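Researcher: I'm comparing several assemblies side by side, and this is the next one on my list. It has 712 residues spread over two chains. Same procedure as the others: predict the full complex and return the structure.
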Amino acid sequence: MSSRDVVLARVRRALADVPRASGPEETAVPRDYLREHGEHPAEDTVQLLAANLADYRAIVHDIDAAGLPGLLAHLLGERGSRSVVAPAGLPPEWLAACDLEVVPDVPETTPGELDAVDSVVTGCAVAIAETGTLVLDGSPDQGRRRITLVPDHHICVVRVPEQVVASVPQALERLAPGRPLTWISGPSATSDIELDRVEGVHGPRTLEVVLMRP
Amino acid sequence: MSVTDLGMPAFPAAAARSTRDTRLRANLRYATHTIRDKRARAVSELGDWAQLRAAGRAIKDRTLRHLDHYLERLEEAVTAAGGQVHWATDAAEANRIVTRLVRATGEREVVKVKSMATQEIGLNEALAEAGISAYETDLAELIVQLGKDRPSHILVPAIHRNRSEIRDIFRSEMGSWGRPAPDGLSDRPAELAEAARLHLREKFLRAKVGISGANFMVAETGTLVVVESEGNGRMCLTLPETLISVVGIEKVVPTWQDLEVFLQLLPRSSTAERMNPYTSMWTGTTDGDGPQTFHLVLLDNGRTDTLADTVGRQALRCIRCSACLNVCPVYERAGGHAYGSAYPGPIGAILTPQLRGTASALDASLPYASSLCGACYEVCPVAIDIPEVLVHLRERVVEGGKVTRRGVKTLIKPAKGHAAERAAMRAAGLVFDRPGVLRAGQRLAARTRKLHPRRLPGPGRAWSDTRDLPPVPAESFRDWWQRTRGGERGNGREEGGK
């Protein structure tokens, strides 16, 4: 008997008291919790996203599409970044105004090489206002998971209002489970020293979010 | 379970020692009170918390009551997505599987994400015996590992250490594990976090094998979820070529949609945040992104035995948030080490004796490590009635009875040392069944009031060490009632009526 069979047989013996013929639905799951907490017009949802991002120490910028290249050039320049990783599907005009080395997101790059890059610019899949969360799903404008992890400075562009949802349930509805997903709520942090939150451990210590309007 | 637990004293002895450690008590008091208040605020932001809690409880119950079904679906989905699924009946088998998988890569070191399951099975020790170094990368786990210490809290394993102790450990120990602590390291938390960042980065960048647990596994899609704060989890889950996840079989949830409940319950209950900084979700392997080999080791190790107990099985709903530890008056004073397992606090007091059985003195003492105040039940995001299970397990320890051990139904004998309690309860049962005997006894007790000792002799001594015996009234309630009818006939008050 394989260990698989042993464990499954133990489970079945342990559940002798459960009426199993009717299937899992014999246990009802009440879903009367809210789909979102309070109904907001789209503009308020974007404001809430900005407030919650800032509350967890992300730096939030507001810009229209035409102003984006200038803003990115300004932010990267202000930080003194000499190199930036760009995912393959990042719209080329976003970095058009920047004067620095653009490192492509290719499989050959080693983690060590990535560690030498100063910044990364990506889009996102969805942003959650109630929790101040950005979700990346590996789409072409977001790239491999590691590029938003190893460099110390991440600029994430959110297309508002269409990429913003109010709540966690609404975000899950929009996401494809088969894709590698990274949920980001503020910069890397820890509460391990006296349960006090400190920003900046292993992930990017600076997270900038650009809310880009059409 | 873990090798470090062998020979641990029973809870009362361990707690008697730890409660005298004033620094430990100060550290714990400060930390648990801080998080308690923050958690209450984070929870109060959601008007539907009670509904989310009820849903969380029901989803977990549904899963547990049809666990075989969901495990088979999970296995199918993970396999279809490119993962390999292994099953381990106990800790030793899980350790053998992981050791074999690491050896097959040819590597001698692994990086680890904080994981309760691997703590429970003593994986690091097993790997060390096989000549494989396992580096803990969670800040608190790093503090514990460098300090040759044991974890004392589910979420914050180094909660018993304050900032200056942590600085001292970093200064003296980091050098022998890798990059030493920076010169002049202070005890500012930000500087300590920076020291950990520098120390671990070289390990992340060269790691070929990562080992993790998981907070949730979605049966329908084969997706695994790791919830974390620091980014060490993301490092271990994405940079290595091979990922091995060791996960308890109770961590499965049926559907993708179910995550909408737990991703609201867990961060607020745990770190008191609207959302934790990083959550990773992966389904098998993804071409060109992250580990190209993924192994999932499904761990029983006493979980099916726990499932067989219809009262105790609710402990398997636990999502390891640690809110029950942070509100527990016993945990706050005794500290996590006294519980002698990976799972301290109220949840540990019901989980450990079920996973391991109550054969050892330590495990038999755990159901008593509680005042039954119920604060743990109140904060539990999946509504585990911890006091109910504690009382149930106390009964099992005292009375013995039918339990399942390693999948086999067995009859356990009543524990030693509870003879006086059993005799007293039997006597009480006899007396309460016979009103005449009860009346005679009460009158005798009332007449001999002056002779009553303040403390019990013999086996009752320990009980009265910390309590005064209740005084016996001059007249029993039954006699008073018979004489006065609650005030109708004499010296009582009149408003009682008929």
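Model: For your comparison table: Chain A is about 25% helix and 25% strand.
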